[in-house]
Amino acid sequence: MAEVPVGHRIRARRHELAITQVDLARRVGVSPSYLNLIEHDRRRVGGGLLRRLAEALRMDQHTLSGAEDARIVAELAEIGTDSVFEDVRFDSEDAAQLLAASPRLTRAVLTLYRAYRTTLNQVDELSERVSRDPFLADANHQILTLITTIRSFSEILRDYGDLDDAQRRRFLATVVDNSENLSDLAQQVFDFLGGQGARRPFASPAQEVDDVLHDHGNFFPDLERPAQILRSRIGRRSGTLYAALIAHLDAHHGIHVTFRQAGELPPGGVRFDPEARCIELSEALPDATCRFQLARLLGRLEASEAVAGICEDERLTSDTARERCREAMLSYFAGALLYPYDTFLEVAEGERYDIAVLAQRFGGSFEQVAHRLTTLRRPGREGVPFHFMRTDIAGNISKRFSASGLRLPRYGGACPRWAIHQAFLTPGRLVRQLAEMPDGSRYLFVARTVERPAPGFGQPQSIHAIMIGCDAAFAARLVYADGIGPHLAGGTPVGTSCPQCPREDCAQRAFPRAMAGTSPEAQAAARSAESDIADPTK
Amino acid sequence: MPQSVLVAEDEQSIAESLAFLMEKAGLEVRIAYDGTTALQMVADSRPDLVLLDLMLPGQDGFEVLKAVRANPRWRDVRVLILTAKGREIDRRKAMELGVDDYVTKPFSTREVVDRVKALLPPAED
């Protein structure tokens, strides 16, 4: 193993203590030039001199001698042999040099490597679990059985001309029945492997909540009912709904509402203290947001059982996922309370889903209205099936739901050509877009940024873009389709996200297509996309 | 006397198609839908060939194969495995246990008929 350099530690500690080289040399009884050689790792140190140096520098001799460093160098040298470093092999000599140059960076490299190994292990474990998944194993066997039957009887029908009518009919019926079963099974497998709302072997808490929302069609009658009852009770009071919410909290729950300066509250601008029976709201919040927060609190107080029942869903596998779902359900309740289903749907249809008009009519915000529109899914009395998503300017998607048939990306950012990203170019203004997916399906997108007012000058402000949209088949029911053209022809060519998009010629492509195949053309396109990223002048 | 074949297959429709093919090939056919019955039928009627599925209820195909090969009186019984288990390890295991041929599902009916014919020596009249 390489000698661990000690010089850098002596020099660093000497600087820390503000001792000159000459002074330290005198204290340990060597010449300044010899100490200089030691500090530059050109002389080895040991025995009495090491002990005297440690004393003079008020350091543990072990630390100074580098026992810990030796371990780090050994570990670093070991990882240097990992195949991941195939092209940049390094040995203990390099490791020692790196440590001498920057102990912190060296530790960072080790931390990174350990994280990499942990991730690799997790990937192995996940692959193992997928391969053992009982659903897939069973489906695999069933598919082969069905195909075997279909193939056998098809070949018999082809090869044996002397079948009687009864036989021929029976064999054909078998082929048809088994084909139908195969179709059903194939659908189940597709759902399992990533269709929205399907059971998946591994999902993040956010994905699990997405699945629950999707499987309920983003409609929760158990929350609609209590919200409707509460609204009728609150609605009898005079004055604005906002005032009525405050009065109801006070009268029925003994909770009072107070307003505080933004800086005194958590970033969301709201804090509920159950002991003190008090909800504190930031002065910076707009009225619509304050109302929504009060409505959420009422959900917590009056619909807790319904919320808890929904959160018992077995697809939610962690406390984090259940908590996330609870938050989503409280917001759902608030939406149902502030925008009562039947009234809201009627006005929405009447106003052709003009979000600005609906926000004015119901005293709400763009985001609240857009979100509530996606929940109008009561069987038999449904609104237009929408998708909904929210992203920040860096492309982090924080809300997503799709009933429109549009596939929203689960991992990473959405297609850069989507209106939701363009909305950031014109903050506060509505952007509409007729978008055409690679499979030819077309959607009407409506997007706008929404911002939370800054608490004061120079304070950071949060801004998001919201997009809702529907299949072009429903577009005529929306005010946003007006003027696009009589047949809604054409449309911006878009995809779901770069890795999933086959549009190789897209100038906005950020990543090569995943699993693009191995054709020379596909590889060339992938390389070209990569070089575009690498070359900032393009 | 025609040569005989035992179809040991739990999927009724696949068993039916195999029975049809074997009859057309001039063989006498019996069907067993589970492993235990299959072994009983081998004992009762000593077929010339067994078309054996591996994933049978009761005793599975490997156990049936093992039992057939363990009995000297059935040494001449040919066994052709027809299975959805396409993994190399399953094929090796079957070979180790003395199977005569191995076809994975979904199979070609012509191929199965050809392989059966290849396994059965011309009948002695």
TrEMBL record, chain A:
Assigned GO CC terms: cytosol
GO MF annotation, one: DNA binding
Domain HTH cro/C1-type: 10-64
UniProt region (Disordered), positions on chain: 517-538
PROSITE patterns for the chain: HTH_CROC1 (PS50943)
Pfam families cross-referenced by the UniProt entry: HisKA (PF00512), HTH_31 (PF13560), Peptidase_M78 (PF06114), ScfRs (PF09856)
Keywords for the protein's UniProt record, in alphabetical order: DNA-binding, Transcription, Transcription regulation
The keyword ATP-binding appears for this protein: no
Broad EC category: transferase
Listed EC numbers: 2.7.13.3
Catalysed reaction equations from the record: ATP + protein L-histidine = ADP + protein N-phospho-L-histidine
Record carries keyword Transcription: yes
Family: Belongs to the short-chain fatty acyl-CoA assimilation regulator (ScfR) family.
This protein's name: histidine kinase
From TrEMBL, chain B:
Coiled coil spans: none
Name of this protein: Response regulator
Record GO terms (molecular function): DNA binding
Claim: Transcription is one of the keywords in the record: yes
PTM-bearing positions, type 4-aspartylphosphate: D53
SMART domains for this protein: REC
InterPro entries, per the entry: Bact_response_regulator, CheY-like_superfamily, Sig_transdc_resp-reg_receiver
Residue ranges constituting the Response regulatory domain according to the UniProt record: 4-120
GO biological process, one term: phosphorelay signal transduction system
Organism expressing this protein natively: Ferruginivarius sediminum
